[in-house]
Design brief:
Length: 339
């Protein structure tokens, strides 16, 4: 296998010049093109490990999603995180960086060791953390001097910059939409109570309705795990009682898809017999029939913001503690029209 010295000899330049040319800096265009052509002919592949030793950088960023053993791995169950990753990868490519993904669990006794190792082993130059659940951030001390950004932290995170999606306003927009359009018998299939996004959505939704004098009885509430199957089970339980709601607000679009499947099986028409609202505006929302009223349209924006903020932090452009807020919007479709 050809090495950098082989490329330099073929191009008639020094090893240092060949290295600069391959990294796109410090040489004129004619020399750079000659070095690149020689590298192609020799099928030269840069040794990233060697580059790390020389520069102290890995040219890699890492996104860490922290799951819980209590709930399914949503990376396997949905395309939700795909939209984040697509945009983060795009930002990484613009900076000539690799993008890696790691999934760990809160219950893992080696969780602290995982973060400590990722900071110390120089395998990445910066980290995006998606903690998801309302647990204590015991790993923060290991990240104090390491370029890190977080998505939707629920507690003070030691000045680590973060991107905040205001799910409270998103859920409030659903509640106001239902009130303004004449819905009064309202049910909710909410997310896990210890999931931060799910907690924010549920709390804001119920509080907004309460301020309008509308309360949701316990039999019209169901805790999902964000999966299609839990949406199916939620709709089944809610409709098993003596009375039925005229609308169900679901924790996400996948939950809404499961609820819709049960409603169709029961011969109920959407929205004529019962209306349905989802959340996140994923690809599922457009594919359902009728198309789903939902909240969101910001998944790619969130990924772009996370990637951009991390590179700003790595380049010391952004100050410690900065927070970028994104507000999701209601997307009205056929599943929840005015009554």
């Amino acid at each position: 296998m050809a090495n950098l010295k082989d490329v330099a000899q073929m191009a008639g330049v020094s090893v240092a010049t060949a290295s600069l040319a391959l990294n796109g800096k410090g040489v004129n265009e004619k020399t750079r093109e000659r070095v690149l052509e020689c590298a192609r002919k020799l099928h030269y592949v840069p040794n990233r490990g060697g580059r790390t030793l020389i520069t102290g950088k890995s040219n890699t960023i890492l996104m860490v999603i922290i799951n819980s053993t209590r709930y399914p791995n949503l990376i396997e169950k949905s395309t939700f995180f795909y939209h984040f990753m697509q945009e983060i990868l795009h930002v990484a490519n613009l900076h000539n960086y690799n993008f890696h993904l790691a999934v760990v669990e809160w219950e893992n006794p080696l969780l602290l060791e995982f973060f400590r190792r990722k900071v110390q082993d120089k395998s990445n130059d910066g980290m995006i953390i998606i903690p998801q659940y309302r647990r204590e951030y015991s790993f923060l001390s290991d990240l104090r001097d390491f370029p890190t950004v977080m998505l939707n932290p629920w507690q003070e995170c030691g000045g680590i910059p973060s991107v905040l999606v205001n799910h409270g306003l998103g859920a409030k927009s659903v509640a106001l939409h239902l009130i303004e359009n004449g819905y009064r018998e309202i049910a909710v299939i909410h997310g896990p109570n210890d999931h931060h996004d799910g907690f924010c959505r549920k709390t804001a939704f119920l509080e907004t309705l309460a301020r309008a004098g509308i309360s949701i009885p316990e039999e019209f509430q169901f805790e999902s795990d964000f999966t299609t199957q839990s949406g199916y089970e939620g709709a089944k339980q809610i409709l098993s009682g003596p009375t039925s709601p005229d609308v169900i607000f679901c924790a996400n679009d996948y939950v809404a898809a499961g609820a819709m499947r049960f409603l169709h099986e029961q011969g109920l028409r959407i929205p004529q017999d019962i209306a349905l609202v989802g959340y996140d505006n994923t690809d599922v929302a457009e594919a359902l029939h009728p198309r789903l009223t939902t909240v969101g349209g910001v998944l790619k924006e969130v990924g772009r913001a996370l990637g951009t903020l991390l590179f700003d932090v790595m380049g010391k452009v952004e100050p410690v503690g900065i927070q970028k807020e994104i507000v999701p919007q209601l997307v009205e479709r056929e599943s929840c029209p005015p009554k």
